[in-house]
Amino acid sequence: MPVPLLHRNAAHMTSLLTQTNRIASRLLEWITVLLMVGLTIVVIVAVIARLMGQSFSWYDEVAAIMLAWITYYGSALAALHRRHIGFDSVLLAIPGRFRMLAVLVGEALVLLFFVLMARAGFQVLEVLEGDTLTSLTWVPVQLTQSVIPIGAILFIVCQLLSLPNYWVQTSRGISLEHAEIEEEVETELAKNKERV
């Protein structure tokens, strides 16, 4: 009797994790896309203004900040989908037990780095208290630099959300990179068959 209950709980947890991943992915996608659209609009408006002989003093500062925000939020999205640079081929060449130990060590190092980054980000925010942007004096620098600890925390959350699936795939000897490549190849082959 307890075994079916255990299976139901595991299935529920898997479903909940999948749903959480999907929601986090959509949210980060929307934030990243909105930032990219915003940056595009800022650049276009600034170029048009420059062509008309007017130049915005705030353009360079705002564009650089938006690019940094895109980088942090996009990085968290990439972590959620395990799309950062990795060494799957090397990792999968390691025998089973040692492979999983390597995964644990790698994950611990990544998480430690981002914990330290979040901590440093909060310290930076304390130091910048009261400072404002040079060109837009009504915008606090703390707001623009808040992306450092927020981005680090988001990366940690996304890394942890994607860890269970990554753990299972790696323990089975399945490369996420190779699986994606094989899927693309199969899709292209199917398209080519339809064309013929």
Total DSSP helices? 7
Low-confidence stretches: none
Largest sheet: none
Rg, Å, rounded: 22 Å
Distance between the termini: 55 Å
Report the principal-axis shape.
globular
The helix/strand order is HHHHHHH
Percent range for helical residues? over 70%
Number of strands: 0
Beta-strand content estimate: under 5%
Whole-number mean pLDDT: 88
The secondary-structure class comes to mainly alpha
How does this model look, in words?
The chain has 196 residues and is mostly helical. It has 7 helices and no strands. The longest helix has 50 residues, at 2-51.
Characterize this entry briefly.
By secondary structure, the protein is an all-alpha fold. It contains seven helices and no strands.
Describe the protein's topology:
Blueprint: H1 2-51, H2 59-80, H3 88-93, H4 96-127, H5 141-145, H6 147-171, H7 176-195
Helix pairs in contact: 1-2, 2-6, 4-6
Which keywords apply here?
196 residues; mainly alpha; 7 helices; 82% helix; 0% strand
